[in-house]
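#help-structures
NK: newbie question, is this the right format to request a structure? protein is DUF6879 domain-containing protein
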Amino acid sequence: MLLDGDGWREYFDAFEREAWRFEAQPTYTMPKEQENVARFLAGEAKPADHNARWHERVKGYIDSGRSIGRVRVVRQPLTDYQRYQFAWGIPGNIKAGEDIRILDVTHDDYGLPLTGQDWWMFDRTRIARLNFRPDGTQINREAYEGDPAPYREWQRLALEHAVPFKEYVKGLDL
């Protein structure tokens, strides 16, 4: 089942305890972000309201007793988009309450399926797979109807080998 528009928002917001993302694209090519990525690459200052709508959502989840987190998969050297995320995106998401960890797979895949597929797991039972073109443009989102056990194992492995964002970025020149 494809998840778009309001259907995606309802599917996402229905989680009761935990929303967790495996984020594996080296670059996300999202039209609404292109201006900000260009501004970052030009050395401009981050706008004060950058990603404010997402931060409000995260705060709402946290305030309601739910948790939200992700593991961001990277390989060295970081892409321009990852540098943008690290400098402009992730710090605000963490401040809003999201638990974000970094998994560097430059030298080891840790037994994870590094096929370029992102996914969200909700309450350890519902999976939404995010499908992308090679350039990072999202094709669609789909509800996965199969056994969630492999996704729980991949989450366990990712969390076991990932490090907190603040630890990973120490000493990086973003």
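mod (FA): yep, format's fine, and the tokens are attached above. The radius of gyration is 16 Å.
NK: thank you!
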